[in-house]
Amino acid sequence: MKIDSTTTTASTVSETRNRTTIAQPAAGAAAEVHLSALAAQLQAPTEAPTFDAGRVAEIRQAISEGRFTINTGAIADRLIASASELVGSQR
After folding, report:
1. Which string of DSSP letters, residue by residue, matches 41-60?
2. What is the pLDDT along the chain (91 residues), one digit of tens a residue?
3. d(CA 9, CA 55)
4. How far apart are CA 64 and CA 68, in angstroms?
5. Do 31 and 25 touch, CB atoms closer than 8 A?
6. Nearest CA to 51 among 43, 40, 39, 59?
7. Positive/negative CA dihedral, 72, 74, 75, 77
8. Can you tell me the distance from the alpha carbon of 75 to that of 91, in angstroms, rounded to the nearest whole number?
9. pTM for the complete prediction?
10. 3-state secondary structure of 62
11. In terms of C-beta distances under 8 Å and separation of at least 24 residues, what long-range contacts does 23-30 make, across chains too?
């Protein structure tokens, strides 16, 4: 079986190129982007450092010595507050 693709390939490529044109913005048109309040907050520099290596070392030492205790009540309270805030912000 012989496949002859010389004429059909050239015409198919030409048709594909003609059909697939990418929409370009008008000359002089500027793209406008609006950020949400959350995006702006995430981009804003924070005053407090996000990672405290010294504190991590203290906690690691306390865990290894068996002195680290977990306050489950405080964790639960903060989790509930965070979930409530998230639900409130979506309304």
Report:
1. HHHSPPSS-S--HHHHHHHH
2. 566 655 555 555 555 555 555 566 666 667 788 778 888 777 777 676 678 899 999 999 999 999 999 999 999 999 999 999 999 888 7
3. 66
4. 8
5. yes
6. 59
7. positive
8. 25
9. 0.35
10. helix
11. none
- Match 């912000």 to its residue by tokens: 89
Q: Which two tokens stand for residue 69?
A: 């205790």
Which position has the token pair 């309040």? Answer: 37
Distance CA 50, CA 75 (A): 19
Q: Which residue has the tokens 């496949």?
A: 3
Quickly tell me which residue has 């489950």 as its tokens.
72
H helix runs in 1-91, sequence order: 6-19, 37-43, 53-65, 72-89
